[in-house]
Design goal:
The complex is a heterodimer of chains A (621) and B (86). Chain A has 21 helices and 15 strands. Chain A is of the alpha/beta class. Among the domains of chain A are: 188 residues, Aspartate Aminotransferase, domain 1 (Alpha-Beta Complex), CATH 3.90.1150.10; 242 residues, Type I PLP-dependent aspartate aminotransferase-like (Major domain) (Aspartate Aminotransferase, domain 2, 3-Layer(aba) Sandwich). In chain A, helix 14 links the parallel strand 7 and strand 8. Chain A is globular, with a radius of gyration of 25 Å. By secondary structure, chain B is mainly alpha-helical. Chain B has one domain. Chain B has four helices and no strands. The chains are: A alpha/beta (621), B mainly alpha (86). Chains A and B meet through helix 7 and helix 20 of A and helix 1 and helix 2 of B. Chain B: This is GK20383.
Chain lengths: 621, 86
Amino acid sequence: MGNLDTDAGVTFEQSYATTNGNGIGNGKLPNGQSNASNSNFLLDNTIVDEQQREALVQILNQRKFSAPAYTEIRTRRSAAKAAAQAMKFKNANASNYHPAKNLQINGQVHALKEKPDFKPSQVEGKLSPEKEHYAKTSFEEVPLHTACLTYLGFYLLMILGYINQLLFVPKVASEKGREGYVTLYDAFESFYSRYVYRRIKDCWNRPICSVPGDELTLKDRVTDDYGWSFKFTGTQTRCLNLGSYNYLGFAAATGRCADESEDRARTAGLAYCSSRCELGNTEQHEELEKLTARYFGVEDAIVFGMGFATNALNLPSLLGPNCLVVSDEKNHASIILGLRLSGATIKVFKHNSMKDLERVLREGVCYGNPKKGGLPWSKIMIIVEGIFSMEGSIVRLPEVIALKKKYKAYLYLDEAHSVGAMGSNGRGIADYFKVDPKEVDILMGTFTKSFGSAGGYLAGSKKLIDFLRTNSHAHCYAGSISPPVVQQIVTSMKTIMGEDGTETGRNKIMQLARNTRYFRKRLAQIGVITYGHEDSPVVPMLVYLFSKIGAVVRTLTTRHIAVVGAGFPATPIMEGRIRFCLSAAHTKEQLDYALEVIDEISDDLGLKYSRKPRDPNPIEY
Amino acid sequence: MLDNLIEFANYWWFRYLMVTELYMVEKWERVTIHVIFMVLFCVFGYFNYSVLLSFAGLFGPKSGIADILPTAAAAAQVAGQGVKVI
């Protein structure tokens, strides 16, 4: 923050002292001196074997960052609280948030073994499924004054942007030597990114330089010109990672997945330099497809090298101009792009509203295609996502299936975020609702998130997949998936299925479910507004204002927590949010640390918008 | 005591900047907006002083509609007469 804002009166020394003070308290140490004492403590008191000790020393040496690129927002309350916290932590070493947790890569199952009984939600099994889903999903209304202030602030930013553009035209804003041409770039979008997004650009596109496991290392950078350009300081910040889609914690540089992928790269190389239809099809790909089909309990599956392209390139081969698509309003950009490419007629229904879905379907069936004088559509397809990534809500699958059957429509379910993360066996939304996966016509998902790899799949009946094999652009023209990438998927999938002979997969799924429930309940107790379903590991925390997105991301970075903010183009103007993505790799201590910090900063920055009654009892993990 | 006050003011100034999105803009832009705010405020004040204040005396407990809107009162009188005639 300090690099952008000199007004808050924070000098470098002050902020350094603050961070240092916290560091002694919680074990996250930004400077070399305390590192030494920390490592001494670790080496003396922790029983680790020789290999682990080496790894630990490596990690500690790696964290040689001297000057933080971010400075803390120092306020009356935060200073007092931080001091109190430091005192508390000095006395109780047991609750330290410790970098040594980093050693337990790829299997955070220790906490689980002590408490194997998973506590279900209060409403579970007491209500009908629809009501239960409704009770677990929360979209709290924005307080009126916040809504007004958000719009006022947005208008102020616009006014300032126009003044700014009028007075100082940046070189990139006008094209030279192009008389008579129309402008190549969309005016409002470039205006928006220059004068709104640019001001808090340091909160996005942050380069990292480590594996995005439960912790990651951010590469520090500073800006001298309010976000027009950035300079690397050469330092790094180790942060707790609450931003990656690493739901099951398979993104790791060590462990079984990484080893097997490495072996595969050594035996099979990195690329086949050909598409699946030509010389790029191998036994390994076939095995992956069979495994995927078995994983979801359907007849067949087809895999692609890129998750986004799976949607964007396969939807056009399934749909044509005389098709009606009924699409949820919060669907991902890849689906929207695919639908536009297909030329089908798109009708949007309100987010997760079954009433609206039925209305759109009924109108589609009754009135037919208006472009062809009301002749019936050749097919109607409902497209929904399993977990909506910006809302954190879960699709009401059983009701959608009932509607689909009633109106004889097809159902395309995008499980990008839910596969692996949902259901007792990690098989996605169908598993979560205990629905037969064959009732969903087309199951789509990615390997990028839970499996810690890259690519996407489509699964369904044999007939569908055979059709895709001959008609899909992504299958015929895109290069086949790289061998180590395939190996990572196969190994992680087998681990989740328990075919490696261990309980690791099950434990990871359980750990994620527990983390999710705990984190969401604690956030509700803190009093911030979160969106979505109780069981979804994507947790959007509403902050509404652009400034607050910036302030929260910057402040959390000073406290060594990396999160992702989401603002206007991705969300409605009024609903800026911070998105936490939970992972099975997180331990309770890490979450507790994060929650404590969130509690503190939401007091300071005024994020406690929620007017719901708060649970006075401590939340059990 | 003074320190506390300054800290209090600083904190709420920061919160004010936050809710008006002025936190993330450059300093000269912040000054510009504040100048605009002040000008608007002064114009409102002047308007209240010069225009609205002259009406203030009319809104007393004893004032009737005739004091505030003489034309409306006259119209009502005319209408009343009309009723009387019929």
